Structures are given as structure tokens and as C-alpha cells.
Amino acid sequence: MPTTLPTAPLKPFSAIVFDMDGTLLDTEMVFKEIVWDVSADLGFEMTDLIHHAMVGSSHETTNKLLVEAYGVSFPYTIFDEKCRTLMRERMEDVVPVKPGVHELLAELKARRIPAAVATSSRAPHALGHLGGAGILSMFEAVVTRDDVINPKPHPEPYLMAARRLGIEPELCIAVEDSHTGVRAAHAAGLQTIMVPDLVRPSDEIRALCIAVMDSLHDLRHAAFAAA
Fold first, then answer.
1. Do 7 and 77 touch, CB atoms closer than 8 A?
2. Is residue 1 part of a domain?
3. What is the rounded distance in angstroms from the CA atom of residue 223 to the CA atom of residue 65?
4. Looking at residue 11, what DSSP letter applies?
5. 142-200, pLDDT tens digit by residue?
6. pLDDT at 145
7. Do 130 and 32 fall into the same domain?
8. Which site in 12, 71, 118, 128 is 20 to 30 Å from 138, CA atoms measured?
């Protein structure tokens, strides 16, 4: 599916709020492999359809999804703990970032444009991985699952991120890789850009975005090329 770039310059913005896994951190493929392995170990067959529905979802939503898919006998607590343990082991040495992350964050810092993270991950996971990737200090605010009552696709994470930055939502760009995240950012009133990772945008999701881009390099060029 071809990438859609803005037909006009982006609207004026004063901040950028990023999703984390799959947007800033190149972790989704690693987690996908873990999900497949753990599911098989527990006697369940993971599928692309179920996994795609998990991408960007909160702990509670994933629990509900897997129980609906496999029945009440699915041992979600064990599944969750095994996945988290393996993820910690895989990320112990280095947490990989997506192409363009360092360049975009450096550009924002140089221009004194604040950045935040809005993630469905819990605080220990989010802060640990952002720190392991060496980029935690680049953000003025980090909103995790522990900070909100309603996770994505509810707009609360993005509204909280904008509030912590002290900037109106409509003056913020949101960058997402998942359908769940796009819905949350759009509902919060942010200019929403999708940079797909494992999941491509549907027509519905594409309509909620001001652009769908191949990488954060494209976003940096679109935002600052004419500056």
C-alpha cells in the first residue's frame, strides 16, 4: 500500500506526542516472536489476526481479547508474566529504536519543541525501555498505563500528555503505529500521523490521520524542510 504524504505543509504545531513500542522503539517484532512462543508453550495457537488486534492495546484489553479468542481456560496471568520476563531478557543489552528517532528528537530539542510519550505500557516497562534506548531524557513528559484511568483507544492518554506539556491538543502532533493509538490520538484532537510498523492502516484509520508516513525521517522532513 503506498504511503500518503501531506499534500500541504503540516499545520502549525507546538509539540509532538509519540507512542512508544513500534513508533519510537523497534520492539514489536521481538514481542511478536515472544507472543508466538509463549502461546505455543501454553498449548494455544497464536494467529496474525489475534496478534494484530493486540498491537497497541492495554493489558486489560489484551486479557479480554485472548479470553474471548481462546476461552476462559486461557491462563492470561501466566502468559503475561512469561511474555514480560522474556521481553526483559531480550532487551537487557540494548533496546533498538526505529529509523529516524535520534534525528527527529535531536531536531525537536534544537528547536526547543517539547516532546512527550503516551503509551499503553506500564511505567516500569516504559521508563526502563526508554532509558535502555538512551532517549528518556529527550521527553518532557511520559504518560503510561499507570497514569490514566482509561487507556487507548480512549483519548485520555493523549489529553494528559498535552496537559502535562501545557499545550492545547490541537497544537500537538501525535505519532502512532497502531489502529488503537490512532483512534485515541484523533479522539483527543491531535494532528495524527501514522507510521505503520506491523499493522497497515485500514481505510477507516487512514481517514483519521493527516498523513501516513514510511518513517520518522519523513515526518522530520515534512515538519521542518521549509523551516
1. no
2. no
3. 37
4. P
5. 999 999 999 999 999 999 999 999 999 999 999 999 999 999 999 999 999 999 999 99
6. 95
7. no
8. 12
Mean pLDDT on 48-54: 88
Indicate yes or no: pTM above 0.90: no
The C-alpha cell that represents 171 in the structure block? 497544537
- For residue 155, the SS3 value is coil
Tell me which amino acid residue 112 is.
Answer: R
Vertex 20, ends 16 and 21: CA angle to 5°? 150
Verify that 160 and 182 share a domain, yes or no. yes
Q: Which of 2-6, 109-113, 128-132, 172-176 has the lowest mean pLDDT?
A: 2-6
Side-chain-side CA neighbours of residue 33 (13 Å): 6
For residues 128 and 108, state if they share a domain. yes
Cα–Cα–Cα angle for 27, 147, 132, rounded to 5 degrees: 35
User: How many Cα atoms sit within 13 Å of 28 on the Cβ side?
Assistant: 21
Per DSSP, 46 falls in state: -
Cell of 24: 519510537
